């Protein structure tokens, strides 16, 4: 199983000190964390896309290109790229450029987006939320498979034998579909023959096992090459030597992250310690505890999903970089070897 990390580069004030990192500092921390993850032999590092003043990164490809210059082996992906409000041609070219800079280590994970601030920002209507994604994922797959494309749709100008340049180092760029747990999204990924990333931060993992089964069934029924069928599970993560220390340390940052990231009154929520502990329980979605506890939780998920990749998000809620670095070292040095 591949083990890795992803980040949204939130700039939540540290609940212990009240200090908020600057965009410069958070961007540097993201690059430093990726460099350490690479040196620690983790498999993949992902960067998310947001268009808000409480998140530091709006262009994952630009940050990934910077990361590519200071890493050597780790795979680089978006987590996720908001495909409905992006032009597939420009997106493909940006990530293929990252692929060239990194000598073939780039991927992309595309999704519809849980946050919708990019729709008015780039002139798209939420009424077309799903139609935009359906059309653009079809075009993106076509761009990846052919170096000349003829295509016509509703939401962009047609392509007439258009040259699609540059081309990925290894012929094709891995394109994953990121989902938040809806059955329709999982089935669509299967029909398209694309790898699937399931992000789960609030629900019992067992709830989503039937959707992963449906993905695999749709994948096979569509006649796709089953060698391309992969599943990744993503969620929040914090590791410390002592289980109780992990919970006590992480809770204030976890609660601050959920409390502070509202969009016009949406999404923000108070997370009680009771709810936090419930999510951290063996059958919950939160990976927090000692290295052995995290190993056991990953393997419990493996029984449910038979997944190929686990990626954790640890740098949330103003968590100091020193604790982020410690998590990377524990994940790579103690969790990954036991899982693998």
Describe this structure in words.
- By secondary structure, the protein is of the alpha/beta class.
- It is built from eleven helices and twelve strands.
- It has helices at 23-39, 60-68, 88-101, 118-121, 129-145, 183-192, 209-221, 243-260, 273-280, 291-305, 321-339, and strands spanning 2-7, 44-47, 75-78, 81-82, 108-111, 148-151, 159-163, 175-179, 196-199, 231-239, 287-289, 309-313.
- The strands form two sheets. Strands 1, 2, 3, 4, 5, 8, 9, 10, 11 and 12 form a ten-stranded parallel beta sheet that branches. Strands 6-7 form a two-stranded antiparallel sheet.
- β1, α1 (23-39) and β2 form a beta-alpha-beta unit.
- The longest helix is centred in the C-terminal third of the chain and has 19 residues, at 321-339.
- The termini are close together.
- The relative contact order is 0.15.
- The mean pLDDT is 95.
SS-derived structural category? alpha/beta
Radius of gyration: 19 Å
Q: What is the overall shape?
A: globular
Give the biggest sheet.
Answer: 10 strands, parallel
Note the gap between the termini. 6 Å
> What is the residue-averaged pLDDT?
95
Uncertain residue ranges: none
Total DSSP helices: 11
The helical percent reads: 40-55%
H and E string: EHEHEEHEHHEEEHEHEHHEHEH
State the total count of DSSP E strands: 12
Strand content: 15-25%
